Amino acid sequence: MSIDTLETQLPLSPAEAKQYSPLTLAFLGDSVYEVMVRETLLREANRPARALHALAVAHVRAAYQAQAAAKLSGQLSEEEADILRRGRNANGINVPRSATPADYRAATGFECLFGYLYLCGKTERLREIFALIWQEIPQNQEFSE
After folding, report:
1. Is position 4 annotated as part of the catalytic site?
2. Which of 4, 30, 82, 103 is the catalytic position?
3. What is the mean pLDDT of residues 37-66?
């Protein structure tokens, strides 16, 4: 599939996007969110690639995404909150040792929301949500989970 083909198939209607499982939406949302993180880090400062990578990793960890999901409480539409909840409550989540089950579930819900909004072509809303949760993690700060 080419980029041109993809562009003609998106955006999907909300009903079409909801046909995907929450874990499938989270699979896509993970990459959408990571690209937004990397783009923002790149725009903020010209840092060495190693520092950019370390900062990106800190932002895409389950603990950080769980904090981000908590920040969105009261900021989401009913539909968005439902999508986040579907992702958080999805069955079949395998929690890695580097995260707590609660953080990983919250992060999955967060990624599910990003995947859903992307599929629906709601890029402006993605940017709004990203701006609400973005916070700089200093280069020398250890991020604990």
Report:
1. no
2. 30
3. 93
